Amino acid sequence: MEKRRLAILGSTGSIGTQALDVVRQHRDLFSIELLTANTSSAKLIEQALEFEPSSVVICDESKYDEVALALQSHDIKVFAGMDSVCALAGGDNIDMVLTSMVGFSGLRSTVAAIRKGKAIALANKETLVAAGSIVMKMAREYSAPILPVDSEHSAIFQCLLASGGNPLRKIHLTASGGPFRGLPKEQIATMTRAQALKHPKWNMGAKITIDSATLMNKGLEVIEAKWLFGVEPEDIEVVVHPQSIIHSMVEFADGAVIAQMGHPDMREPIQFALGYPERLSLNNKKLDFAELGHLDFMAPETDKFPCLSLAREALRIGGNCPCAMNGANEIAVAAFLNDRIGFYDIPAIISETMSRTDIIAEPTLDDIFETDRAARAAAGEILEKCQKHS
Questions:
Q1: Both ends of the chain: CA-CA distance in Å?
Q2: Which candidate among 94, 139, 141, 199 keeps its CA 20 to 30 Å from the CA of 110?
Q3: β-bridge partners, 80
Q4: Measured between alpha carbons, how far is 35 from 208 in angstroms, rounded to an integer?
């Protein structure tokens, strides 16, 4: 393959740092043109000194001077703010954009890159949760390929590549079950931030780890799968697979199922997206089936983890409802991470926010941004009530 010039949006987060590890292993195939970070200025400086991109952006404008001073003797342009991210992501010096910014904040920059026809390695699931119909339509309009980076959606994509063009019957979306799988509901209700952050299998950022604990992450992935693969919600089944060896499966009309397997290591789906269609070598742990011994599967406990059902309900309602649900979830998770609310306050805040949302069946992009703003405001009000009653 020809050398690819990359922009990594959110380079200091979990996905971004693992993507840079992939680049370290294949410097002959990838070059870094743009790195962006939200507030992690020291880490951004360290990455810039190692990978020498054309430009870096620190979104927190108060940290611009720090980054600019550290890089002033190097041939690296320094910018600040989200406007700069959006402008630079579509630059002529970039072939592919890895969108790994956390949460709804990733939507604007992803849209900007799509409008410039860039190949998108999508690690920001909230983009399709909030604006799936709009984003996929834009991707077709601007001929901007979207390659999934989430391990589950990468797995589905890889299974479909092996299908010979045959249509799928059902997607089996696997879930680890999170750190509280199998615990009684009364015990789950008392779980703390520290306990929720101890994911049994995956190394992820704080927000996505809490989403995994509530099963909201799997709800977001159901919505994302609907848009990525053009399937109906009822064709997506969630199955808990604690070992996280099978990353997802696709079933066909004859009942045959193709599964994609591997040890839980996000570098594999990141690398598959960055190098597609080629498979590149990776210094990861390879599967030993005799060592595995067995694999377990079970239905999700939706009575204990209602966020999955809330996500499915938002998808059923459609329009801007998934956007409102996502905004409320981001507010609630941030509050939980700051020890302001309990574990089950998260679905309560989301549910009430959804009930307050004015549904727009076919929202515009402006409607999506307004829905997100309104949902966050509503969730903030509901959050205050939760705190008063706790």
A1: 57
A2: 199
A3: 58
A4: 21
pLDDT in tens, 182-227: 999 999 999 999 999 886 666 677 898 999 999 999 999 999 999 9
pTM above 0.85, yes or no: yes
- Nearest-angstrom CA–CA distance, 85 and 77: 13
Polymer length of the chain? 390
Assess contact for 9 and 100: CB atoms under 8 A: yes
User: What's the CA gap between 365 and 111, in Å, rounded?
Assistant: 10
Cα–Cα distance, 204 to 36 (Å, whole number)? 18
Distance CA 147, CA 228 (A): 9
The crossing angle, in degrees rounded to 10, of helices 216-229 and 126-141 is 10
Cα gap 227→207, rounded to integer Å: 22
Of residues 1 and 319, more confidence is placed in 319
234-286: per-residue pLDDT in tens? Answer: 999 999 999 999 999 999 999 999 999 999 999 999 999 999 999 999 999 99
Are 104 and 372 in contact by the 8 Å Cβ rule? The answer is yes
pLDDT in the model for residue 390: 54
- How far is Cα 378 from Cα 381, in angstroms, rounded to an integer? 5
C-beta of residue 109 within 8 angstroms of C-beta of residue 85: yes
